[in-house]
Amino acid sequence: MAVRWTATLLCGLLAATLAQATFSAPAVLNLGPDVIKERLTQKLKYHDATAILQQLPLLSAMREESSRGLLSGLKDTIMKHVIWLKVTSAAITQLQIQPSDQDQELVIKIPLDMVAGFNTPLVKTIVEMHMQSEVEARIRVDSEQVGPSALVLSDCFNRQGTLRISLLRKISFWVSPLVDKVTSLLMPTLPKLVKTQLCPVIQAAFKDMFQDFLKLVRVPIPLSPGGLLFDLLSSYIEGDVIQLNLQAKLLDSQSKVTNWLNDSSVSLAMPPLDGAPFSFVMRQDVLNAVVAVLLPPDKLTVLLDYVLPDLAKELKSSIKEISEQAAEKLDGTQLVKFQTRKTPQLLLSQGGAQAAQLIVLDLFPTNTALRPLFTLGIEAKSEAQFYTEGDQLVLSFNDISAERIKLMNSDIKLFNPELLKDIITKILNSALLITENGASLCRLLPSPVSSPGVPFLHLPPPSGPSPNPTSAAQPRPSLEPVPGRRDGPRRAGGTPSIAAAGAIATSPAGVAGENDPKPHVEWVGEYVT
C-alpha cells in the first residue's frame, strides 16, 4: 500500500458549514493514525529498537530480582542453575494508534514479540520461551513550553497484564519446576527492563518523527518570484489525529517577508479525514494571496487579424450591426488590448471553483491609432482547475465568460455592449486564457509517508440538512484528472480510481459567523493498492 502527497495546496474546495472541529489558522496539516504509525515504525527501526530488545540484560536483572524478598536465598539457588539467558530474536509488530480518555492526548500501543533462551546443566539443549508484551506510550500537547505548543511523549510503560510467556518446545518433567521459577522471575523483570532500556528509544524515535513533520511543513515553496513559507503555530490532538496549525507568510525574491497571513478571527470547520491518512487544509485567502503573486495585474496586446483572423472577421461583423462607419475603420492591423485590473479571485460553491476577474478591453482600429474605438469594462468568470504536471501544481482557467460588460468609453455612438458579449467571450477564451493558463502554483512538497502512490481530492459531505432534498441522495462529486493534459481534471462520479493522479472537488466550508465567510482548500491523501 502506498500514498503520495502530491501537493501542499489543495485537494478539495470547501465553503460552508460542516459540524466538525474548527480552525482559524492559515493552514492545518492533519496526520491520521496510518501516517503516525508508519513514520514511528520507521524511526523505531532507525534507532535499532529490536537490537535493544535483543541486548536486554535478562540474566543479571533476574539475579538482582532474585536477591530481593523473603525467599531470596531459594531464588538465588534456582538462578545458579541458569548459566546463560538472553533474547535470541525480537520483533515489533503492528503499532496501534488510539484516542485517549484524557484531553489532548494520544495512545500508542507497541506490541513486542520475543524469543528468549536459557541454558542449564539439567538439559543438553537450550530451553526456548516465547514472550509477548505490549508497551504503551502516551503523546500529549505540551502547552507549558515557550513558543508554539509541541507534542511530547509524556509516559511510556509496559502495560500490566500484557506479558505472556510460553515454551516453544516440550521439556522433561524434572526441568518444569526450574522453568516455572525462571518465568516467575521474568514477569516482574522484563517490564522494568523495557521501561529503562526501550522507552528512551521510543522517546527518541517519536522526537525524530515530530521533527520530520516540522521539516516537512517548513520546506519553502517557490512561487517565482518569491515563495510561500509555513511554520508551526500550535499543536492539537483530536481523537487519533495530530493537527498541526500553521502560520504562513509570503516572501519576495530576496526572502524578505511581504505578507504575514496571520491567524483569523473567524473559525472554520475542519473537514474529517474520512479514512484518508492525512490532509492539508488551507484558507482560501492564503490561496488567493499565492495566486496574486503568480498572476498580478497585467497588460496584453493582440494583433487580432494576424493571431485570430476568424474572430477578427466576426468582431467586424458584430460592430457593423452597431455602426457601419465604425466597422469600416477596422483594417488588418486592428489591435485588442487587455488590461487585468485585479488578480483573479477564487469563488467557491457547491458546484465547483470559479475565478472572478475585472478586465478592461480597448479596441484600436489600426496599430497606429491613438484612441480606441471603444473601451469595455468586463466582469469575467472562468472555471478554475488544478492539476499536477511533473513535480508542479498547476492552476488552469477554462470557459471564461463575460458576466457583465460596461461601455466605459466610445469613439462612436453609444451602444449596448451586450451586443458584443458573444464575440468578446470568444476573444477572451482564445487570447487571454492562453497567457493565464499553466501558471505553476508551487513545487510539490515531500509526502508525510514514505512510499509514492496516488493521491485524490476528497469531498467531505455536509453535516447539516441539504438545501435541496434531492441532492443529498446524489453521489459525492469529484473531478478526475487526465494525466498528461493541460485542460485540468474532468468531472467524474464517486471516488477517483487507482489510475488517477489527483482530483479536485468542492463542498461548503464552515464558518462561525454568517457575515464573514472564509472558505478554505484541502488536500487529502489516500492509500491505494
From TrEMBL:
CDD domains: BPI1. GO terms for biological process: innate immune response in mucosa; negative regulation of toll-like receptor 4 signaling pathway. Residues 458-468 have a biased composition (Pro residues). SMART domains: BPI1. It holds the Pfam family LBP_BPI_CETP. Residues 36-263 form the Lipid-binding serum glycoprotein N-terminal domain. The keyword Signal applies. InterPro entries: Bactericidal_perm-incr_a/b_dom, Bpifb1, Lipid-bd_serum_glycop_N. Transmembrane segments: none annotated. One of its GO terms (molecular function) is lipid binding. Keywords: Signal. Residues 1-21 form the signal peptide. Residues 455-529 are annotated as: Disordered. The keyword Signal applies. SUPFAM superfamilies: Bactericidal permeability-increasing protein, BPI. One of its GO terms (cellular component) is extracellular exosome. Residues 492-510 have a biased composition (Low complexity). This is BPI fold-containing family B member 1. It comes from Marmota monax.
